[in-house]
Write a structure and sequence with these properties.
There is one protein chain. The two termini are 25 Å apart. The chain contains nine helices and six strands; from the N terminus they run H-H-E-H-E-H-E-E-H-E-E-H-H-H-H. The strands form two sheets. A four-stranded mixed β-sheet has the order 1-6-5-4, sandwiched between helices. It has a two-stranded parallel ribbon with strand order 2-3. It has 212 residues and is α/β, with parallel strands linked by helices.
């Protein structure tokens, strides 16, 4: 993304007066969620401020946690160490064996291939790492399951559930309250830049088609 585009996005968010992720009037996070569901063909998206947070959300969304053994796609040592810290025993595979989630790592070079990469996913949950777009740690959990989405979203402090009731001190859904919540909520600034990068990623192909 060009520096001018980045400056335009940052100016829009900063001048909106909504720069904190706990604002009910934020439009950047829902905008990125809509774009990701459209590009991946999944019904629901939960945004996280790190890859590890999204991995946690994907597994918690499926009801997996401390003491469970899970098969995961081949991943880096840091992610495996984090899953071990959560109390999970992991088995990795590269052979097409069914996994607890599928994983896509986006960069500026492959961002235009997100629909193609997502179409190859067969797991109930898809984790899309947006960090490689260049605007800071960010990731998303994509799923067609309302239950998986709800459990993943509820894992976040000031996630969608907390924002519904944060001024009333009531619980939106007591059955979904996790033992511990985490500061996994994504910044609107990062979300806005990631959305712009993904939007620009398809422009060359669209332009080429217009002149063919």
């Amino acid at each position: 993304m060009e520096l001018f585009d980045t400056a335009t996005v940052l100016t829009r968010v900063l001048t909106s007066g909504v720069v904190m992720s706990i604002e009910k009037s934020d439009r950047e996070l829902p905008g990125l969620e809509r774009l990701l569901t459209k590009r991946t063909g999944r019904a629901r998206a939960a945004l996280f401020n790190s890859r590890t947070g999204a991995l946690h959300g994907a597994l918690a969304g499926r009801g997996l946690g401390h003491g469970d053994t899970v098969t995961v796609p081949h991943t880096d040592r840091e992610s495996l160490a984090f899953l071990a810290w959560l109390g999970l025993t992991t088995e990795t595979t590269e052979t097409g064996e069914a996994t607890a989630y599928d994983y896509v790592e986006l960069t500026q070079e492959n961002a235009d291939r997100l629909p193609e990469l997502a179409a190859a996913s067969t797991a109930p949950v898809l984790v899309v790492d947006l960090t490689g777009l260049g605007f800071g740690p960010a990731a998303a959990v994509l799923t067609d399951s309302a239950d998986v989405w709800a459990r993943a979203e509820r894992l976040k402090i000031f996630g969608a559930y907390d924002l519904r009731t944060m001024w009333t001190q009531e619980e939106a859904d007591a059955d979904l309250v996790p033992g511990v919540q985490f500061n996994y909520r994504l910044s609107p600034l990062v979300a806005a830049c990631a959305r712009m990068a993904l939007t620009h990623a398809v422009r060359p192909a669209a332009t080429l088609g217009a002149h063919s």
